[in-house]
Amino acid sequence: MANTQSTDEILNPIYIFCVHQWITFLLLMFGPLLVLGVWLVKGVKWVVKPK
User: Fold this and answer.
1) Which residues of 20-48 are buried (b: 16+ CB within 10 A; e: fewer)?
2) What is the mean pLDDT of the chain?
3) What does the DSSP assignment read for 1-51?
């Protein structure tokens, strides 16, 4: 039981760190793409609207 607990104590912070790094990586990769996509959609709607 002590062995399993110590393994969890070692691995859990590493797992949490990796998940946070992965989320940060995804946000850095897709954040600008999402902003660009929203900006393009708004631009297209603004151009189409007057016609």
Assistant:
1) eeeeeeeeeeeeeeeeeeeeeeeeeeeee
2) 85
3) -HHHHHHHHHHHHHHHHHHHHHHHHHHHHHHHHHHHHHHHHHHHHHHHTT-
d(C-alpha 1, C-alpha 43), whole Å: 60
Rounded to a whole number of angstroms, the distance between the first and last alpha carbons of the chain is: 72
Look at the pTM and tell me if it is higher than 0.70: no
Radius of gyration of the chain (CA): 22
Distances (CA, A) of 17 to 12, 25, 33, 50: 8, 12, 25, 50
- Give the single-character DSSP code of 1: -
